[in-house]
Amino acid sequence: MTKVTPPKKGQHPSSRKGFFFEKTVVKTTVPYEKSSPIYSLLKGQRVGQIPIDEHKEIDKEELIGYRRTVASLEWLLLLLVLLCTNLPWVDVPEPILLYVSIATFALFICILHYMWRRYDGTRWKLSLNMWGMTFFITAVVWETGSLSSPLLPLYFVIIMLAGTTLGGVSTILGTILITGCYLFFGAAELSFSLNDASTTTFHVEHLTRPIIQLFLLWLLAYFVTLISKETDRTKDKIRQLSRTDQLTGLWNMKMLLIFMQREYQRILAKTGKFSVLMIDADSLKAVNDLYGHHAGTMLIVSISETMRSELREEDMLARFGGDEFVAFLPDTTCEEALDIAERMRIKIAEAPLNYEGNQLSITVSCGIACYPEHGHDLTEIMKMADKALYKSKGYGKNRCTIFEQPLESDKPASPSHHSREMQES
Q1: Of all helices (H) and strands (E), which one includes residue 320?
Q2: Cα atoms found within 13 Å of the Cα of residue 279, Cβ hemisphere only
Q3: Peptide bond preceding 372: is omega within 30 degrees of 0, i.e. cis?
Q4: What is the largest CA-CA distance in the chain?
Q5: CA 79 – CA 5 distance, rounded (Å)
Q6: CATH of segment(s) 249-417
Q7: Which among 158, 247, 244, 149 is positioned nearest to 206, based on CA atoms?
Q8: Which of 398, 374, 372, 373 is nearest to 386 (CA)?
C-alpha cells in the first residue's frame, strides 16, 4: 500500500483533478499558513490545560452549590424549631433534652459545613446532611408530642430536599426511614394508650392525622422521584448534545481534546504511542456550488459514517468544523495509522453519494502524525498532522500523507522520489 502517490511524470505537483473535470493550476509554493479551527478553539491553551472531564467538574460545582443551600436551610430549620418550641401552646415536657438536641444539631452544622470542607463536592457528604436533618427532626418531634407534635410536617422538607439534590434512590431511602419513625411514634402512642384504658379511643382517633400525613409523604416521594428522573434525563440529553456534533453524531472537538489528554497521560505513564489523523473532504465546495448546501450536508454525513465504520472501538473520531475531521488512534504506530487511513480513503472514494439521481464522487485527504516520532506534545503533533494534510491537498488530493521532519542539511526533495512527504517545520 503506497503512503503517498507522487504526481505523474511531467505533472506539476499543484495540478489538481477538479470535481467534474481536470484542470492544471500552476502556483508558486508558499509557506504553510493554514489556520485550523483547532487553534482558535484552544485559544492559546495547550491541550494539557483542558480539564480532564468538564462534566465531572460541573457536577462537583453543582453539589457544592447544593451544600451551601442545605446549610442555609439547616440554619433556618434550627431557627424555626427555636421559635415554635417557645410558643405558649407547644408543650415541651423536657426542655433540657430539646435544647441539647438543638445544640448538637448546631454543632453538626458547624463541623460539616465550616470546619470539615474536604469532601464538599461529593454526594455522600450531602447525604450525610440529609440523615442529620432527619434525626434532628425526629428528636424534636419526639420531644414536642410525638404524633401530636405540630412540627411533624417538617419531614416533608427532607423528602423535597432529597428529591431535588440527591435523586430518586435517596428519596425512597429517606421516605422508608421517615416511615419507620412514624411507626415508632405510633407504637409508642399505642403502648401508652393500652396502659390507660380510659384514653384508648382518644389515641386511636389521634392516629388518623399521622396516617394521612404518611400517605401524603409517600405520594410526595413518588412525585419528586419522577421529577428527579426527568431532570436526570434532561441533564443527560444536554450533556450528550454538548459532547457530540449534531449533524454527524460524532464527538465534538472539545470532547476529543479531553479524550486525547486522558490517553496522552496514560500513554506517557507506560511509554506507549498514538497517532493523529487530520481528514478533510475534497469535494464539498464543488457539491455546494452545483447542488446546494443540502447535498453538501449529505456528503459530510456520508463521509462521517464511512470513517466511523472503518475505525476500531478504541479509536475516537470527531468533527471540528465544516468538512474537517480528526481521528485519535491510541496505541497505533504510523504504519498502522496509514493502513487505517488508506482503508477509509479508498472506501470513501469507492462509494459515491447518490443525491437526487446524481452520483457525486467523494474523496478525502488525510494527514498523519505520530507520537513520539513527530513530537512530544499533543498540540505539536496535531499541528504536524495538519501540515501533512496540507501537503496531501497540495499534491492533488485523495491522498494520505505521513508527516516527516526533513534534515536541515537536506533540500526539499521532489515528491516523485519519496513515498513519504517531507515537510518544512
Answers
A1: strand 316-321
A2: 28
A3: yes
A4: 116
A5: 80
A6: 3.30.70.270
A7: 149
A8: 374
- Of the CA atoms within 13 Å of residue 19, those in its CB half-sphere come to 18
Q: How many residues does the chain have?
A: 425
DSSP, residue by residue, 64-79: HHHHHHHHHHHHHHHH
DSSP string over 112-170: IIII--TTTT-HHHHHHHHHHHHHHHHHHHHHTTGGG-TTGGGHHHHHHHHHHHT-HHH
Q: pLDDT tens track of the chain, all 425 residues? A: 333 334 444 443 333 333 333 333 333 333 333 334 343 344 444 444 344 455 566 677 778 888 888 888 999 999 999 888 888 877 888 888 889 999 999 999 999 888 888 877 788 888 888 899 999 999 999 988 888 888 888 999 999 888 888 888 888 998 999 999 888 887 877 776 556 555 444 455 566 777 888 899 899 999 988 988 888 888 878 777 777 887 888 888 878 888 888 888 888 777 688 999 999 998 888 888 888 888 888 989 889 888 888 888 888 888 877 788 999 998 888 899 999 999 999 999 888 888 888 888 889 999 999 988 888 888 888 889 989 998 998 888 899 999 876 544 344 333 333 333 433 33
Q: Where in the chain is the domain with CATH 3.30.70.270?
A: 249-417
Which residues contact residue 200 at a Cβ distance below 8 angstroms, ignoring those fewer than 6 apart?
193, 194
The model's pTM is: 0.56
Quickly tell me which residue has 497540495 as its cell: 394
Amino acid occupying residue 154: L
